[in-house]
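stage 2 :: seqdesign
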């Protein structure tokens, strides 16, 4: 397996454990699985590397129109940099992705207070959400359609959330240039909100190209968004049509074409309305990059997708000496609507014992031979 996050596995594992100890990661110690692993899935020229730290995608490599293979996701040069990372590069985030206003909610009159790590709000599950714990490897298969399944048991009171929760995520290469992400979560003893998201940053030109994603053409199959307050990005509870606004990506348009009209850049949930199949899976978005010819389609079974243009990237050093400045990558995070615990008009994200949360995503890549 080709390492993409460092040259010395032993040193990296030692560094990760030391840094985790410094960080005081009680959750990891509670799980008793303080071993970092790296796992490659490959089919021909298409490959991806993952780690059980945060069930994180470290790289996705595929050819461009000239046959040159690039890594098209942002990531750090070593595993130690993922510890205490607040940009969530490639991570599986939860127990509740996106924001919970005030870091609190109630279930049947019982108040719960979650760790506030985004001002007065909880973001992506709190300071030590699912992106900041060790996951165990449930299954790892090679062959024509390789896959890996990570498992994590979230304990009652973790980051303030109620009840034990069993979580599984499977990454699988489904074809020559496609892979899927399948997430399951099952409450064991108490009702709890659940909203998992995959937080990979994409740059189809190549993560180390030095180019921003402002020239990437994006189409989002949604005619409305859930508008947010300008300061803390909490949904107002309304549904706003995108027609006549800079949020309208119903037809392909460069990310940078109207981004100056959006304070800070794009970071908003779209209300998906494409036609779904019998399993509830619909086309979510299409991203294309002309220089490389790479095209990415995203399909999923969730009601929303967070479109984020990498507004808070601040020049951190990534793989191969790359620097990730503002707009170096974009995210398309399929999800339930943010802050659904406070908005009864949004699709529910509350699950009770006996119910199962499921979230399916499918990425399809292709190469356009532009003139």
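stage 2 :: out
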């Amino acid at each position: 397996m080709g390492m993409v996050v460092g040259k010395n596995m032993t040193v990296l594992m030692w560094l990760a454990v030391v840094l985790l100890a410094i960080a005081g990661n009680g959750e990891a110690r509670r799980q008793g699985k303080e071993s970092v692993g790296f796992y490659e899935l490959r089919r021909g020229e298409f490959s991806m590397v993952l780690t059980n730290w945060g069930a994180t995608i470290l790289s996705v490599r595929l050819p461009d129109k000239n046959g040159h293979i690039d890594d098209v996701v942002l990531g750090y040069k070593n595993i130690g940099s993922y510890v205490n990372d607040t940009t969530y590069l490639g991570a599986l985030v939860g127990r509740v992705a996106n924001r919970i206003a005030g870091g609190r909610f109630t279930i049947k009159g019982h108040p719960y207070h979650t760790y506030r790590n985004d001002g007065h709000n909880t973001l992506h599950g709190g300071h030590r959400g699912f992106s900041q714990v060790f996951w165990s490897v449930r299954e790892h298969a090679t062959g024509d359609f390789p896959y890996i399944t990570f498992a994590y048991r979230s304990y009652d009171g973790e980051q303030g959330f109620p009840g034990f929760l069993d979580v599984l995520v499977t990454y699988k290469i489904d074809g020559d240039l496609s892979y899927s992400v399948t997430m399951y979560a099952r409450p064991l003893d108490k009702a709890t909100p659940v909203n998992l998201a995959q937080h990979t940053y994409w740059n189809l030109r190549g993560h180390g190209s030095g180019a921003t994603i402002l020239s990437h053409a994006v189409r989002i199959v949604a005619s409305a968004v859930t508008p947010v307050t300008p300061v803390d990005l909490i949904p107002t509870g309304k549904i706003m049509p995108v027609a006549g606004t800079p949020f309208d990506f119903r037809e392909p348009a460069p990310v940078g074409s109207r981004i100056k009209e959006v304070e800070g850049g794009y970071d908003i949930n779209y209300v998906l309305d494409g036609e779904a199949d019998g399993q509830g899976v619909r086309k979510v978005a299409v991203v294309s990059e002309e220089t490389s010819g790479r095209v990415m389609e995203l399909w999923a079974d969730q009601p929303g997708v967070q479109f984020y243009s990498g507004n808070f990237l601040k020049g951190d050093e990534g793989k191969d000496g790359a620097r990730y400045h503002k707009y170096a990558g974009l995210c398309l995070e399929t999800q339930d609507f943010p802050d659904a615990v406070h908005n009864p008009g949004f699709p529910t994200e509350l699950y009770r014992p006996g119910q199962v949360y499921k979230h399916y995503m499918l990425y399809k890549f292709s190469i356009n031979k532009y003139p």
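stage 3 :: structure notes
- The helical segments are 9-23, 26-31.
- Residues 69 and 261 are 35 Å apart (CA to CA).
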